[in-house]
């Protein structure tokens, strides 16, 4: 394992996914850059054979997989080959019906970071090195803030409190952080000699405060560099004094130091340090060291904050772009599985299930060229239009013609493939039309799987007018499979081999002696075929229930 050296940077984050056994299932482009390994070298191989090969790494990965399998998030670090190099890891359950593990990797070199261009003094260097090694072990804001105050107390101060601007935490982008009142959230507190200090204390974590003019926190968040003071301001003293032990705690401190938390040119908040009587008061040298500690903490807090924002945004997009739980008519079973490629949370694939009159259902699977947010922007327009047209119960060929005109009129003239099927459980039949899409597969009740020979039509966006529908018989217990090319084609697997692998996987998963639920069969098929996936993957299975 040779992670690229460098300071903490969100741009250096790499993601990949593992199956429950620890084999690499997908490999993003940032992962290729970080580990200098192309996807072809790592996919479908145990992660401990290709990445984490050092002493104890196998046990570490085993513990991580076990925690994720139990529904927990695991965080940890692995030493790199370069001196002082550390790879921070976060493993979490992968959303979706198929089990898996999402791994976020962040390289870091444990070198001191200080705000001053001068080298740290001999007494400051060990503490800054400790800060570099211990702060930022995860991409969680609260835990990162806890790590920062744990480094400072009691080594540097007898107390430390971190405040972050509430507008940043609330994702109110573009709002000014300056003004007569500074609104901030207390995210971490550490007091020496009080290991039981908790949420019931005078400085509860999570409390949102409005600091008035003249308070050190307001001055720091208004642009002050460093503030040294020997007593609490009246506003803070009154607030702390409301708690039974607040005055006792405040009386024990005789020197204070407040410094800003700055990262990438943005003011995140401030950290306040305090020293008790019997310890030298803070001086200029302490201010320099405090700035170094704050610099390190701010960089890691900003990484965690940005990651949290991006993940919430991506999950919200994924929930909004993908259909919710469908209303499947009686006599029909439907299972579906979707996963975007690499680190993307949304992509160009889409599927939809639309109940219509007479107990029928429309199944739609589409694939926009490309993947990532650009493809997703096109996908959502086509999916919305297809759903609306399906509600109108237009014939399949008419729906595809309208989608073709829509795609041709979009910016950049993207093209997409689509398969549109109307299933009628009462008549045991299906009407299908395709626009450049790969042919569906039909697995019969005896386990035999056939590729359906349908007129393919032209992809959407190319001006095709002839989308010829085909009427199919769906015997009871037969299963129709609609999918996208990411499931069957990759640089390491030709399309014909992928199609054969899909047919074999369907026959095995739907064999009559297994009698597996359709959701289980869908997960088994995708788990087997996704190992070579280099594109968004979608599979929809539909079965007419036996009478």
Please state roughly what percent of the residues sit in beta strands, choosing from under 5%, 5-15%, 15-25%, 25-35%, 35-45% or over 45%: 25-35%
| The CATH class of the largest domain | Alpha Beta
According to CATH, the fold-level topology of the largest domain is Phosphatase 2c, domain 1
Mind telling me the C-alpha Rg? 29 Å
Number of structural units classed as domains: 3
For the biggest β-sheet, the strand order reads 8-7-6-11-10-9
Query: In percent, how helical is the residue content?
Result: 25-40%
The CATH architecture of the largest domain would be 4-Layer Sandwich
| Oligomeric state as shown | single chain
H/I helix tally: 15
Identify low-pLDDT runs: 1-11, 109-122, 172-180
CATH superfamily of the largest domain: PPM-type phosphatase domain
User: How many strand elements?
Assistant: 21
Q: What structural category characterises the helix and strand content?
A: alpha+beta
User: N-to-C terminal Cα separation, in Å?
Assistant: 56 Å
Main sheet properties: 6 strands, antiparallel
Mean pLDDT score: 81
